[in-house]
Amino acid sequence: MFQAELKQPVSRLQGIGPKTTSVLSSAGIITIDDILKHYPRTYEDRSRITGFAPALKTNEAVLINTPALITGQEFFGRPPKQTLKVMLEDASGIPASLVCFGRNFLADKLIPGRIIILYGSFQNRFNELQSSAFEFELLPPETTFDEAPEAASALPDFGRILPVYPLTAGLSQKMMRKAIAHALDEWAVNIETELPESIRRRYGLMTKPVALRQIHFPDNETDRETAEKTLKFEELFHFQLAAARRSYKRKSARKPGATAAGFSTGNGRLEAELLGKLGFKLTAAQMRVLEEIKADISSESPMSRMLQGDVGSGKTLVAFIAALQTVERGGQTAFMAPTELLARQHADNASKLLTPLGLRIALLTGGVKAEQRRHLLEALSAGEIDLVIGTHALFGENVAFKQLSLIIIDEQHRFGVMQRLALSGKNSTADLLLMTATPIPRTLAMTVFGDLDVSTIDELPPGRTPVETHLAAIGNERKVYDFVRRELSAGRQAYFVYPLISRSDKSSLKDAESMFEALRTRHFSGFTVGLIHSRLDEKTKKDIMDRFRAGDIQIIAATSVVEVGVDVPNATCMIIEHAERFGLSALHQLRGRVGRGEHQSYAFLVYSEDLTETGTARLKIMKQSTDGFYIAEEDLKIRGPGDLSGAAQSGFLPFNIANLNTDFELLKTARTAASDLVKTDAGLLQPENSAMRRLLEICPPFSDDLIGG
């Protein structure tokens, strides 16, 4: 049975009527596949007889599973609010009692002299073992203690390990267990095992039907663990197989004119000339990643590389040098940025650094006028532009290149998969360099970006000092403002960042427009204040930022539009109001806007009183560390991989049971298995191969070309 067949509605199950179907739907369970993947959150081990003895050794509550003889009944409390109390003892004679709050009707069932099988939470209270939370079943009359375990095993809720499921209103554990048992009996027995048998045997994994049965209703703890490992491995393997196939396809492609030995990147004259004019030396980390990139560019296969480095580590300069390599061999480079503000800054920097070397540079954004755009596109298609820097406008249908050889995508996590593909589609054999100042946790590097080689700039240029980070509660801003005023008086500059552009009747949060007026007229009346946010037209934003860089504006009131790419070395203060409303990545990026010059810089995270647990965790992490890689790992724990990669909205990480925070070792094993499969049987990669088609039909719906063509 293939995955598609499991998309039948859950109402197809025996005993699932319209009312139950509606309740299941509210829990997100729509199909047979959904209910089979509604995995237990924990288990109750009712297979092991404990007796009452474990509860005697502690004052804490202990789960007890035991046969017990009912020795008596009594009621306590004043009528009519009396409560039934049932006395009993286990096989060794240890006494205990059941306090039946709201269940006096049990007096007719819990009759002295009968033996029951009992599961409940027992605790020492009032000099005896008591339980008010318990389940039981009457065993057949005349059953002895010796016969009780076997008799209990014939009951549906005893003598076994029982699953405990996440529930929603209207659902009970009994309902879920019954529905899932029907799904296993009616559908799971015929499910195809998705993992290749060689891999399953190598890693000691179960078949799919057995794994599903054992994850829901395990025979023992060992089988439960193996089932969990199998299902986690399967999810991770599917993801890694998709990445391995993409990587294989890209690496098996050949650049035009390349030979088995690759080809030269040029004589390096342009790079040497640029480095000679910089006035400083590249860091060892920059030199290392440059060698990795140059080796890729000179190879016969297209480069597919992620360049990650903390804010201010010098990634853009490395990218410009990579563009020089491409120009020297006659190719063109497209450099895509997520915002027009950042694209313009890159274009300005490229113009200063690269135009003197003879490079022909152009800026292409949505704000370029029609006539100017027409001339630019003609020059681009004629090969008269070496480096074009722009926004999403670069992947428009009417944008054509004569010889696009290198694609650079800055802040890649801000682009959707299809946007990256659209630009890669301009030339499927072009070298691809993705850049991010949001370090990628190693788990994401092996999943979302598993088909990419990763280069890391792990050191900052000499002279950079860590930004001091301080926390301040709203209401204590006066101290922050006084500090900022001293910095401004010393000739420095500052950013004030707010979560909203304008005031909202639905929120009490501070906004950039209102605070711009407050900063300008009250708090910092002796200084020049500018306002910048996403609703302003690009020319206005450019003019304000140019004046800020020039020092004509001392304070910028802004939203997170200044999160990436804004480089003003003289700015030493970053004040983020309602900091708890920003994600860790955004906070780290915003803090990275200062500390880019020779002066000590400061970040002030101003928080509200109504801090959530998540908000508190974020602020503590920001206070503790300026290490972007540590922050990224912590962000993964808080937000989850989908949110962190920017892929949650597209269902890109459809893990039902695997957890990237805890299953890293299994992820590495799945990666090895997928890579080995691709290497040992490259024929599986051909679409006409029925075995691969079948495996891909069963796999989650990942595109072959999600990243990088």
From TrEMBL:
Q: Tell me where in this chain the Helicase C-terminal domain is found.
A: 490-637
Q: Provide the GO biological process annotations.
A: DNA recombination; DNA repair
Q: Name one Pfam family in it.
A: RecG_dom3_C
CDD domains for this protein:
DEXHc_RecG, RecG_wedge_OBF
Q: Which NCBIfam families match?
A: PRK10917.1-3, PRK10917.2-2, recG
Residue ranges of the Helicase ATP-binding domain?
A: 296-457
Q: Name one GO molecular function term.
A: 3'-5' DNA helicase activity
Q: What is its EC number?
A: 5.6.2.4
What family is reported? Belongs to the helicase family. RecG subfamily.
Q: Which domain of life is it from?
A: Bacteria
Question: Into which EC class is this enzyme placed?
Answer: isomerase
Q: Which SUPFAM superfamilies does the record cross-reference, listed alphabetically?
A: Nucleic acid-binding proteins, P-loop containing nucleoside triphosphate hydrolases
**What is catalysed by this protein?**
Couples ATP hydrolysis with the unwinding of duplex DNA by translocating in the 3'-5' direction; ATP + H2O = ADP + phosphate + H(+)
User: What InterPro entries does the database record attribute to this sequence?
Assistant: ATP-dep_DNA_helicase_RecG, DEAD/DEAH_box_helicase_dom, Helicase_ATP-bd, Helicase_C-like, NA-bd_OB-fold, P-loop_NTPase, RecG/Mfd, RecG_dom3_C
What name goes with this protein? ATP-dependent DNA helicase RecG
- Tell me the function of this protein: Plays a critical role in recombination and DNA repair. Helps process Holliday junction intermediates to mature products by catalyzing branch migration. Has replication fork regression activity, unwinds stalled or blocked replication forks to make a HJ that can be resolved. Has a DNA unwinding activity characteristic of a DNA helicase with 3'-5' polarity.
Q: List UniProt keywords, sorted A-Z.
A: ATP-binding, DNA damage, DNA recombination, DNA repair, DNA-binding, Helicase, Hydrolase, Isomerase, Nucleotide-binding
